[in-house]
Design brief:
Length: 294
Amino acid sequence: MTSSPPPTTVHIPLSVFDKVTFDTHVALIYAYRPLNPPNITLELGLQKALSVYRERAGRYGEEDNGCPVILLNDESMRFVEASVDSTLDQAMPLKPLKSLLSLHPSLKGVVDLVQVQLTRFTCGSLVLGFTTHHHVADGHSTSNCVVAWGLACRGIHISPLPLQDRTIFSPRNPPRFEFDHRGVKFMNKKLDKIYPLDDNFMDRDQDIVVHKVHFTLQFLAKLKARASSMNGANKPYSTFESLVVHLWKGMCLKRVRNHPHKNRSQWRLNPRVPNEYFCCDRAAIMVNSKESNN
């Protein structure tokens, strides 16, 4: 028994959070040491993931009233295969350089909502360049899509499935008309005058700083052992996983100290926004505890 293909005339309206975020493509680069699966395996796995994340193979369009939507027309996406006559260590800089732009498709004049580039190196390493339009999803949702791709490549069922209902943000009952919800009001750039909580959190006048940290082998081994000791009989955490969690916890503690009353709306809203929500909810929505209870 075969099922009919899904209709290609369906569309998904953008939520208010999708519309307010950056109208641009964002690039991610993942580097993998050998051994790596062949390109055909990655391509077939991507096809399976796109059957679940159909927005990625769609296009932008408009409703009759002019509101932007994502057309689920299965128009496809750009898939590039490349090779480099050098090792990954030789090609990968220690600091961000323009040469990294060659590891993912161009971000200019793109109609595809997602692009992928597989770059092979002589050492057997693989760099996966992944670009996605920010209106389609934020970083968390994009990561979920990449993880689903990896599961499909290994023949594992994709779970959890993405929640793609962008209408879940229902109004209060009874409704309270306090704001113009049809528009967007951006905060003044001079945050130090109107939003003093950001004074110690981020100096927006400063350029991004690339800071190089050296961790000793002894420190990394101790960190990995401590993290794995809390994982029970499961597979021990890798050094990379242990270090990333260590750094992330430090960043979160810093943010909590500077924003003692701030929380991500996704986990504070009532009803709660599911983790598998595929949208831009996490882009920049911060509310305090009192607001979230309303």
